[in-house]
Amino acid sequence: MRNKKVLWVAKVAILSAMAGILMLFEFPLPFVAPGFYELDFSEVPVLIGAFALGPVAGVAIEAVKILLNFLMNGTITGGIGELSNFVLGVVFVLPAAMIYAHNKTKKNAVIGLVTGGLGMVVLGCFVNAFVMLPLYSRLMPIEAILGQAAEIWPVIDNVFLFVLLCVAPFNLIKATLVSVVTMLLYKRLSPLLKGKQL
User: Fold this and answer.
1) How far is CA 23 from CA 19, 56, 70, 74, 126, in A?
2) Do the beta carbons of residue 7 and residue 196 sit within 8 Å?
3) Which fold has domain 2-26+38-194?
4) CA 59 to CA 88: how far, in whole Å?
5) What is d(CA 62, CA 60) in angstroms, rounded to the nearest whole number?
6) What residue ranges do the domains of the chain occupy?
7) pLDDT, tens digit (0-9, with 9 covering 90-100), for 117-160
8) What is the pLDDT of residues 75-107, one digit of tens each?
9) How far from 151 is each of 33, 144, 157, 162, CA to CA, in Å?
């Protein structure tokens, strides 16, 4: 029993480290949102771990990933950005893992990823409108942020349109890409994660 727990912790640690490293490789989507919105694939190891080891593992991997990134990169938002990333990650991963755990089929994995992805898109709009943008506006005037967005979408002149035309599509693209990569990799990696050895 103790060996099983140690193995579970080791797998969570390895996946967390992988997620933390992937978080370093961010890239913008300049055709969708201003450059300070950057996409990465760090949710892929989190989702793979959540599918293979259960929802609790997914939340643990998400938490350790955010902590590792905080330790490696520090913060410019006083930890609020990291907390927001954690909440959005959990909103994506937890429903996906719980739906998949109920009946481990490809169909349920897809339903879970779609549900989690849509949850992340919706919550992401609220988090950006009421938490992240007010924080960023301390570093850069909100008019400048909206101005960057207006270079992509000229109709953007308020936070509502910014969230609708930049944040929601950005998170939708992120959820879609992460889900596709997860589906492509999971079946290949799950025997290793579910096995008795690393």
Assistant:
1) 6, 21, 11, 13, 23
2) yes
3) Arp2/3 complex 21 kDa subunit ARPC3 (1.10.1760)
4) 11
5) 5
6) 2-26+38-194
7) 999 999 999 999 998 888 878 878 899 989 999 999 999 999 99
8) 766 677 788 889 999 999 999 999 999 999 999
9) 10, 11, 11, 12
